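Question thread 4412

I'm putting together a teaching handout and wanted feedback from people who do this every day. The idea is simple: show students a protein as raw sequence, then show them the structure tokens that encode its fold, then repeat with a second protein so they can compare. Below is the first pair exactly as I plan to print it.
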Amino acid sequence: MKSKKNFQAWRPHPWHGLEIGDDAPGIVTAYIEMTPFDLVKYETDKHSGYIRVDRPQRASVHPPALYGFVPQTLCAQRVGALSKAGLPGDDDPLDICVISERPINRANIIMDVRVLGGLRMLDHGEVDDKIVAVLVKDNQWGSARDIEDLPPILVERLVHYFRTYKWIPGEESAVSIEEIYGRETAYRVVEAAREDYRQEFPASD
């Protein structure tokens, strides 16, 4: 149980005020913006920290996992440099998808998750990686240590969702999945995103 000395009188900003976790990059904090029950795209407002409605989803596909980001990370130069395409990062927090056996139907929550791998997504000429993780102590998936420990269908659903979630009829998709990578590469992505964040927001150290 945390000491009362750690109490904050004001709600911390989920991107800047929450911590990535003492055991990063293996175990990180995930801030959840969307659940598999959402048909509206929600995003955290960078200024206020509140959840903002981004857009209704055009397609009928639900997010196949909990979806959010890792606090105090940024996809910028270092994250982009890990891509084969050599494109810049999207200047957003590092996205994360969390798989859980038990349905979790509410967002605006935090959880400790184990990093297994990720998807290197390219979106309109920018790198927009999606880390794949499982809820720590999950009864079904808690023993997974790498993305290969997950059934391929779960990863296929993630790939399909991100390839289609910005789909507009009559237009060619500007989203592609460059690579599916495992734990060690995911660790490098998390560390790169931490360094990108520290460079952009040095006062957070």
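The second pair follows. I'd like the answer to focus on this one:
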Amino acid sequence: MKVRRAAELCSLIIENVKKIYVGEEVTLKKILACALANGHILFEDYPGLGKTLLVKTFSKLIGCKFRRIQFTPDLLPADIIGTKVWKYRTGEFVLMKGPIFTNILLADEINRAPPKTQSALLEAMEERQVSIEGETYRLEAPFIVLATQNPIELEGTYPLPEAQMDRFMMRLSIGYVKRFEDESEILKRRIKWKKDDPTIDLKPIIDNRTFVKLQRVVEEDVYIDDSIIDYISQIVWKTREHPKVEVGSSPRGGLALLKLSRAMALIEGRDFVVPDDVKAFAREALSHRIILKMEFVLEGETQEGVIDEILRNVKPPIEVG
């Protein structure tokens, strides 16, 4: 598959998502870019903004299997990855696969499950495999986790371990619609659909194998110059030197920026990365990977604000190539 054809398919996916979901196009592009980069997304947003609808729409359009897990305090690791069950008639243990055996997994309110249960996702998110009673099982490609958590309701929740936060390629906030007309459009579409879930009738644009090919185009056919790589490295390095930061971004943050910028270049129809592709994802890829010093947190400083400050101070390359 060539870059031009891949970009056309990306554009087609975005246009069809917009027929269902009302929201900013740049947000849809960022979600698609993360999926093309084979990354996971943490949605930190208020309830009722259409996150589940958005994820189901994307899943249907790219021909991927979709499963949803409602995280609760009594959820066990085996409820996610599965377990082996003894079958009396056959005299052997049989694997009962959990909902993690899918392409797109929606982990709803992930911070409502205890750390032991959350850790069941660590191996799957990093290595695309799960271990059940000493045996390893590969997950079908693509495998992408999209998790949600409420940023304001903290009662009865468990903070996500830093190791798990670092495995999310980006943290994204959809937010409310920006215009009054969009609010009305949501209601008009609901009347037109005559049902709460319009994804039931959606037909795939591509299949999951074609989507894997799109991911391969990002990896193999999108050029990134050494000057852009140095630009990414400087941004990540500055998060560790910033006076307001206790713990800076891990190297995985730089890898996330690298992959996301290449994916965005493809979506925009280019076979090369420009500095704006990097800037577009700096907040989403790095803010959840840094920990601010407590005195600055109490003063109202935010992780996103620190990333914005770093972007202003690190000069992008003027010429590429």
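Top answer:
Good format. For the second protein you could add a caption like this: The chain is about 45% helix and 15% strand. The radius of gyration is 20 Å.
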